[in-house]
Design goal:
The protein has about 240 residues and is an all-beta fold. The protein has 1 helix and 24 strands. A 7-stranded antiparallel β-sheet has the order 1-22-19-24-17-14-13, with no helix packed on it. Strands 2-3-4-11-6-9-12 form a 7-stranded antiparallel β-sheet. A 4-stranded antiparallel β-sheet has the order 5-10-7-8. The chain is globular.
């Protein structure tokens, strides 16, 4: 018995400055999926010298997180942090009582250009934590616990998945997952959590019956049952689970 699928949503395009990105939440079909309040998927080809920049803007009361799957991004904020992360690395901000930050393709990547792919996810904070001091953490690839099986690689960024604990300071579980074609993996999330996956690219058969593919957000009903994934193509996805 598997955990039933609640909804499958095709993430529509929205404008982010001159660029088009996919917005999986919020949409007309799903306003939010607590504690997750926004998910943007960017997948751009940056020409050499072209660059990518989001100018300074404020955040407060939630965690805006950037998961880089391809490329390099530079962060600068009002706390004095200025740092770049690359592929398979994560920028974890707890905006707390408020901060300003900007993001752009870092200098070395701008010179060379290339694929620039990742996810920005906003995770809501409990009311009791919204006015805590803000913080920033760059999470390097070698700091992220990895589950590896045949054809499967899972990087646990935050929370706990199958007894592995991520380095980000959050009880919410997020993990970057890679499955090669024909690989299978079964997830065992906690029974009191909202659970979803977002497929950046590729295609899956879920729970042996349902197909899902690139740019789709799949949410599940709250239950104690596992979730079975079988990749029918090489697949990248982000796994989300939180109260």
């Amino acid at each position: 018995m598997y955990r039933h699928i609640h909804q499958i949503i095709e993430a529509p395009f929205v404008s982010l400055g001159p660029h088009q990105v996919r917005q999986a939440i919020p949409t007309q079909q799903l306003e939010q999926f607590s504690p997750f309040i926004l998910l943007h998927h960017f997948d751009l080809t940056i020409q050499a010298g072209e660059g990518f920049k989001v100018p300074p803007h404020p955040h407060r009361g939630f965690c805006p997180i950037t998961y880089m799957f391809n490329g390099r991004i530079k962060h600068k904020d009002s706390l004095g942090n200025e740092e770049s992360i690359g592929s398979d690395e994560v920028q974890w901000i707890n905006a707390g009582s408020g901060l300003l930050h900007s993001e752009e393709a870092d200098e070395a990547f701008t010179l060379s250009g290339g694929r620039f792919q990742g996810i920005q996810l906003w995770i809501n904070l409990p009311a009791s934590e919204k006015m805590n001091p803000p913080s920033y953490l760059a999470i390097r690839k070698n700091q992220i616990p990895v589950i590896e099986e045949e054809g499967v690689r899972i990087q646990i960024v935050s929370g706990t998945l199958h007894d592995q604990v991520g380095p980000a300071p959050s009880p919410v579980t997020t993990a970057m997952m890679y499955l090669t074609s024909n690989a299978s993996y079964t997830l065992h999330p906690k029974n009191n959590e909202h659970v979803a996956i977002y497929i950046l690219e590729g295609a899956l058969q879920i729970n042996e019956t349902t197909n899902a593919s690139s740019n789709q957000f799949v949410s599940f009903e709250t239950a104690e049952n596992p979730i079975a994934l079988h990749a029918t193509e090489n697949t990248k996805l982000l796994f989300l689970a939180g109260q």
